[in-house]
């Protein structure tokens, strides 16, 4: 069959807020959220250190900032962190040691992702245990 599939990154790159909205529609706003877990695919911080320092007004720079803003998963995380108790909201989004294109599944890239995920899990055992208990 002919299906048109589209990446949701421009509208719902972090759909945790939509999950919260749907839960409130299903069970009502007065029913407390028991657990909301947001699983990210990782974030690469390299190359972003100078992002905020740039005062460039070029069209390319403006478009780059619009795309970065539209695909920012951490903004949703910040809002949910403010709205929900820390005992019910959990965000797991490991820092990546290198930026890897989604369409580049070379074995060395995949191993790097596995290594980053393992490091994240080792460094966040207490948070993972809290989330497991919440579930």
Report on the architecture of this protein.
The chain has 135 residues and is mainly alpha-helical. Helix content is 49%, strand content 9%. The chain has helices at 9-12, 16-27, 59-70, 73-83, 107-123, 125-134, and strands at residues 36-39, 43-44, 89-92, 95-96. It has a two-stranded parallel ribbon with strand order 1-3. A two-stranded parallel sheet has the order 2-4. The chain is globular and about 45 Å long.
Compose a concise summary of this entry.
By secondary structure, the protein is mainly alpha-helical.
State the order of secondary-structure elements, H for helix, E for strand. HHEEHHEEHH
The count of DSSP E runs of length 2 or more, i.e. the number of strands, is: 4
pLDDT under 50 segments (min length 5)? none
> Between the first and last Cα atoms, what is the distance in angstroms?
38 Å
What structural class is derived from the secondary structure elements? mainly alpha
């Amino acid at each position: 069959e002919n299906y048109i599939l589209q990446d949701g990154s421009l509208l719902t790159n972090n759909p945790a807020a939509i999950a919260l909205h749907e839960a409130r529609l299903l069970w009502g706003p007065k029913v407390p959220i028991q657990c909301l877990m947001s699983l990210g695919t990782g974030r690469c911080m390299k190359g972003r250190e100078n992002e905020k320092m740039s005062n460039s007004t070029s069209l390319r720079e403006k478009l780059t900032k619009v795309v970065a803003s539209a695909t920012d998963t951490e903004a949703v995380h910040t809002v949910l962190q403010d709205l929900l108790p820390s005992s019910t909201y959990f965000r797991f989004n490991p820092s990546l040691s290198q930026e890897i294109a989604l369409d580049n599944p070379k074995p060395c890239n995949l191993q790097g992702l596995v290594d980053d995920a393992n490091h994240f899990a080792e460094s966040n055992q207490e948070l993972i245990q809290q989330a497991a208990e919440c579930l």
